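Lab meeting, item 3. Inverse folding demo.
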C-alpha cells in the first residue's frame, strides 16, 4: 500500500498543479484548497488511519471491515475523478495556461463594474439595516442570546440540543433566519472587507467593523463550532485574491490562529480539559468528517433503498409527486446515534460527499458525482480568472473556495436554494445600484 501511494501521489500533484495554476500556500485557489484540505488533510490521511485501524468512533464500529479497506481506493478515485471534471471544464473554457491566467488575475487591481462604488455602497448600506432587523428578529423569537446563556450551561448535551432545535424547530419565519441572518450577514462582511481594501476610507472601515461584529454574532448564534473558523479562513482567502498572495509566515500564522480559535471554541462549549479537546479535534479533523462515508456504503442498498432525488427538498418532491425522504446524512445519523438523534442532540452525519452520492444514486453517483463537482468548480474558477477582477468576483470566488463544504451533503451541489437566493439578492442590489446611478445621471 505504501509503495503504491508513493507512486500515485506525485502524479496527482502534477495533474492538480496543471489545472490549478498554483499549488503555493501563499497563493491559494479553489482547486489547491480542495486538494490540500478536503482531499489530503481530511479524506486521504483519514482513510489511511482507518485502513490501518487507528480510526475508532461509534460510526466506524458499526461499519464493515470490507468498506474500511475499500475506503482508501474510494478516496483516491474521488481525487482522480474530481480533477478529470476540472480538466473538462478547462477544455470547455478554452484555458491553456492556467498558471499565467491565475497569476494575471492575482496581480490585477480591483476594477469597477461600470458602476461607481458609492452607489453600490449605498444599496448595501440600506440592505444592512434589513440585516440588523433580521438579527433582532431572530434573537427575539429565540427568546434569549445563546452566547450569553452558554456561560450558565454546564451540560454539553444542552448545547447540542439547542443547535439541532435552532436549525430544525425555529418558531419564526425560517427564511429570515436562514437567508438573511445566517447567509447574508457573513457575506455582507466579506463585501465590506473588499470595499475597504479597495477604497481604504475610514467610513468604509467602520462599516466593515460593524458588519464583522454582526457576522460574529450570526456565526456563533447556533453555538456550532466550525462556522466562525470557516469564515475567518474565507476572509483570509479573500485577502489573497485581493492582494495577489501572502508570505508563507503569514499563512502559517493564520493556520495557527484558526487552530487556537477552534480549540478555544471547543473548550468553551464542551468545558472539557485541553487534552480532551485536542484528542477530540484530531478525531474530528482526520476521522469523523469522512467516517459517515463508510457507514453509507454499508447501509445502502443493504439496509435502505437508494434515495434518488427524493431527499433533495420538500418542494421538489411535492412538485414531482415523489414521497420526500430525509437525506442520507440524517438516516445514517439515526443509525449511528439513535438515542441522541431521538433526543434532538444530533442532526446530520458528516461524510465525504461521495457517501451521500452513493446513497442517492448507487454506482452512478459513485462514478459521476466527483466528475460533476469538479466540473462545477472548474467552470466557476476558470470563468472568473478569465475576466477582470472586481469586488463581486473576488467575494464570490472566496465564498466558494472554502465556504462550500465537501464533507457534507452531495445534495447541496444539485439543489442549493440558499446559495442561489443569497447571490440573487446580491445581484439585485447591484441592479438597483445601476438603476440609481443611471437616474442620477
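The presenter then showed the designed sequence:
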Amino acid at each position: 500500500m505504501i509503495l503504491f501511494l508513493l507512486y500515485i501521489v506525485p502524479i496527482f500533484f502534477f495533474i492538480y498543479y496543471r489545472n490549478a495554476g498554483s499549488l503555493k500556500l501563499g497563493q491559494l485557489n479553489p482547486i489547491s484548497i480542495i486538494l490540500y484540505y478536503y482531499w489530503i488533510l481530511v479524506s486521504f490521511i483519514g482513510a489511511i488511519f482507518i485502513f490501518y485501524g487507528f480510526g475508532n468512533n461509534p460510526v466506524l464500529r458499526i461499519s464493515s471491515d470490507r468498506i474500511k479497506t475499500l475506503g482508501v481506493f474510494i478516496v483516491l478515485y474521488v481525487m482522480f475523478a474530481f480533477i478529470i471534471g476540472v480538466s473538462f471544464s478547462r477544455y470547455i473554457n478554452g484555458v491553456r495556461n492556467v498558471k499565467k491566467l491565475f497569476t494575471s488575475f492575482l496581480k490585477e487591481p480591483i476594477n469597477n463594474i461600470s458602476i461607481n462604488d458609492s452607489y453600490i455602497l449605498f444599496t448595501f448600506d440600506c440592505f444592512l439595516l434589513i440585516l440588523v432587523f433580521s438579527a433582532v428578529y431572530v434573537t427575539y423569537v429565540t427568546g434569549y442570546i445563546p452566547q450569553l446563556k452558554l456561560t450558565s450551561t454546564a451540560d454539553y448535551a444542552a448545547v447540542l440540543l439547542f443547535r439541532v432545535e435552532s436549525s430544525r424547530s425555529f418558531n419564526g419565519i425560517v427564511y429570515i433566519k436562514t437567508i438573511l441572518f445566517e447567509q447574508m450577514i457573513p457575506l455582507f462582511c466579506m463585501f465590506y472587507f473588499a470595499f475597504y481594501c479597495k477604497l481604504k476610507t475610514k467610513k468604509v472601515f467602520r462599516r466593515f467593523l460593524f458588519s464583522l461584529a454582526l457576522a460574529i454574532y450570526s456565526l456563533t448564534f447556533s453555538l456550532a463550532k466550525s462556522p466562525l473558523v470557516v469564515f475567518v479562513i474565507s476572509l483570509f482567502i479573500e485577502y489573497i485574491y485581493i492582494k495577489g498572495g501572502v508570505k508563507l509566515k503569514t499563512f502559517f500564522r493564520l493556520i495557527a490562529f484558526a487552530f487556537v480559535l477552534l480549540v478555544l471554541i471547543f473548550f468553551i462549549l464542551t468545558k472539557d480539559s485541553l487534552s480532551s479537546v485536542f484528542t477530540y479535534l484530531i478525531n474530528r479533523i482526520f476521522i469523523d468528517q469522512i467516517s459517515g462515508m463508510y457507514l453509507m456504503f454499508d447501509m445502502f442498498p443493504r439496509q435502505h433503498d437508494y434515495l434518488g432525488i427524493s431527499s433533495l427538498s420538500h418542494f421538489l418532491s411535492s412538485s414531482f409527486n415523489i414521497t420526500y425522504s430525509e437525506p442520507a446524512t440524517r438516516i445514517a445519523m439515526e443509525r449511528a446515534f439513535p438515542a441522541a438523534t431521538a433526543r434532538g442532540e444530533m442532526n446530520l452525519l458528516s461524510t465525504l460527499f461521495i457517501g451521500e452520492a452513493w446513497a442517492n444514486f448507487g454506482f452512478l453517483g459513485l462514478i459521476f458525482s466527483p466528475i460533476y463537482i469538479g466540473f462545477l468548480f472548474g467552470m466557476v474558477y476558470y470563468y472568473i480568472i478569465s475576466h477582470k477582477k472586481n469586488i463581486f468576483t473576488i467575494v464570490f470566488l472566496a465564498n466558494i473556495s472554502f465556504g462550500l463544504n465537501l464533507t457534507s451533503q452531495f445534495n447541496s451541489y444539485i439543489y442549493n436554494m440558499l446559495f442561489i437566493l443569497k447571490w440573487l439578492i446580491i445581484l439585485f442590489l447591484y441592479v438597483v445600484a445601476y438603476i440609481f446611478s443611471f437616474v442620477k445621471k
